[in-house]
Amino acid sequence: PAAFEDLDLDVYDLSMSLNLRTPTIIAAAAIPHLRKRGGGCLLFTASTGGIVGSPLSPVYSGAKFGVVGLARSLAKRYGRENIRCKVICPHATNTPMLRHFQQRPDAPKNEMDVEDIIDNLGKMNPMGRNCEPREVATVALFLVSEDASYLNGVVIPVDGGATA
C-alpha cells in the first residue's frame, strides 16, 4: 500500500501480479485437471476490498475486484463441466498481514501501538472484534466440500457484518 497519487507503476505491476495474475495463472493450469476428473472447485481468496472499494488501498482493492470478476466469469464458463468457482472475502483478520498493513508508509501517523490500533479496528466491526484465521478456514473448507456442490460464482464475505 502507498499513497495513490504517488503511484509507482512497478509497485502497481507487482500488486496486480501477486493479487490477480497469479490466481489467473493457477486457475488456467488447474482447469484441465478438474475437467479430466469430472469437476471440482476453484476457491479464490479476495478481500472485502474486492466487494466494496478500499480508500486505504485502491490498487489492492482493484486487483481483488478483478479476482471476484474472474471467478464469476469462470463460474459461468465452466459450470456445465461441474467446475465451480467461489470467492472468499475476509475482512480484517488477525494475521501478520494485518499488522503490516497498519504499518504501511501512508498510514496515518498514530502514537498508538500497532496492537492497540488493531484492537480498535476490531471494535469498529459490527461483531466488535477482528476475524480469526480459523474462521476464514472453516468457511473455505465448507465452500470446497460436497455440501456446497451447488454453489457456483458466489462471493462470501467473512467480515463480521462489515459489508452488511
Provide structural commentary.
The chain has a 3-stranded parallel beta sheet with strand order 1-2-3, with helices on both faces. It has helices at residues 9-36, 58-78, 96-102, 114-124, 133-144, and strands at 40-45, 83-90, 155-158. The mean pLDDT is 91. The chain contains 5 helices and 3 strands; from the N terminus they run H-E-H-E-H-H-H-E. With 164 residues, it is mainly α. Strand 1 (40-45), helix 2 and strand 2 form a beta-alpha-beta unit. Helix 1 packs parallel to helix 2.
Strand content: 5-15%
Calculate Rg over CA atoms: 17 Å
- Could you estimate the helical fraction of the residues in percent? 40-55%
* Cα shape: globular
Could you spell the SSE succession in H and E letters?
A: HEHEHHHE
The total count of helices amounts to 5
Low-pLDDT segments, ≥5 res: none
Average residue-wise pLDDT: 91
Sum this structure up briefly.
Helix content is 48%, strand content 11%.
Secondary-structure blueprint of this entry?
Elements: H1 9-36, E1 40-45, H2 58-78, E2 83-90, H3 96-102, H4 114-124, H5 133-144, E3 155-158
